[in-house]
Specification:
352 residues; alpha/beta; Arc Repressor Mutant, subunit A; Rossmann fold; 14 helices
Length: 352
């Protein structure tokens, strides 16, 4: 072995950057929880005393936090005045929790991976699985907070409108199922947009269903959403106009069986909406930061979740359009197409 030391040093620099990002992710999450980013949003240049006063925090710690944020390029620094500024372009990502590119909740998901490190290490050795409900609770709340803004921004205004004739049905009292609904964010967004439709949310995780019911009550749409504990092959309702799988099919042990069950539960002219993580059809097409994130989540959460269930197909979070299309066709859907996409999502329409 005779490595090129210049390449060794370059790769070491890459790893140092990754480690710095890992450390700084904790700082980012703290900044979110303490309202530091919100206090800086639109405020122009502030010194550490001003930010501490605005947020009820300690100046000395805030100054150190600001310097970490400066070193990472999250905030600007003026050495002449010793003041800091959150650029307007960073506000949607760090401070606006209604923005579709608000990414801070991903750090809560990341923290759950650290909490579950021993479990993940064990399944890598044994080939066993980890049920969704056996993960640290940061995973559930982090996933909801991460996905909700994207659903609010895109689900009813872009994804559903890209489906043939579905918006019109929803406007005219359609019946909708949200399979693997989690905390109910997608169901609630649809119910708010389509007041004449009725919604049924199904999830096998009882604690998530309890949270979904609370969320629906808080949003004032609980009269039109019924949340039930049920597996993707276990719900008995039929005659749906639309069945949604929102970022969940790849987590299921038997995604073919889940899609086949959905096909049977749809009306003859019904539609299946499949939202999955964006991915190309081969590893060589997924060498980018988004896929790196998704492959990590797939290793620690998605694949173990599938392997904890019957069949345990372990589709993974980077299956890609070709694999997903083949799966839906195996389940009996004859008409499958990509309806639209975002940098983070692949949206597929399937019909009988």
């Amino acid at each position: 072995m005779n490595p090129d030391m210049s390449k060794v040093e370059a790769f070491a620099g890459q790893v140092v950057s990754d480690i710095a990002a890992t450390f700084s992710g904790v700082m980012t999450n703290i900044g979110h929880k303490l309202g530091l980013y919100k206090a800086m949003a639109g405020a122009g240049w502030l010194d550490s005393n001003q930010l501490a006063d605005r947020t009820g925090t300690n100046e000395r710690y805030v100054r150190e936090w600001l310097n970490n944020q400066t070193a990472g390029g999250y905030v600007d620094y003026d050495p002449d005045t010793r003041t800091y500024r959150l650029p307007d372009e960073h506000v949607p990502v760090l401070a606006d929790d209604e923005s579709p590119v608000f990414l801070v909740p991903a750090l809560a998901v990341a923290s759950s991976l650290w909490m579950d490190e021993d479990k993940v290490s064990n399944v890598l050795r044994t080939g066993e699985g980890i049920a969704w409900g056996d993960h640290h609770h940061h995973l559930f709340c982090g996933s909801e907070s991460l996905f909700r803004p994207g659903y609010k921004a895109h689900l009813t205004t872009a994804w559903i409108t890209a489906l043939d004739g579905v918006s019109q049905k929803l406007d005219a009292a359609a019946k909708v199922a949200d399979v693997g609904c989690g905390h109910g964010a997608s169901s609630i967004v649809m119910a708010q947009a389509f007041p004449h439709a009725s919604f049924h949310g199904f999830d096998s995780h009882e604690a998530s269903i309890e949270t979904a019911r609370r969320r629906a009550r808080d949003a004032g749409v609980d009269a039109r959403i019924r949340f039930e504990v049920a597996t993707a092959k276990g719900y008995g309702e039929r005659d749906f106009d639309l069945i949604c799988f929102m970022d969940c099919l790849h987590d299921m042990g038997d995604p073919v069986g889940a899609a086949r069950h959905a096909r049977q539960a749809l009306k003859d002219d019904g539609t299946l909406l499949l939202v999955e993580p964006a991915a190309g059809d081969g590893v060589e097409h997924n060498i980018n930061p988004v896929s790196r994130l998704y492959y990590a989540a797939s290793t620690a959460v998605c694949t173990p979740c599938s392997k904890s269930q019957e069949v345990g197909l372990a589709l993974g979070a980077q299956a890609g359009e070709a694999r997903l299309t083949a799966l839906l066709q195996e389940a009996g859907f004859r008409h499958v197409r990509r309806a639209t996409e975002t940098p983070f999502n692949l949206i597929i329409e399937a019909r009988k």
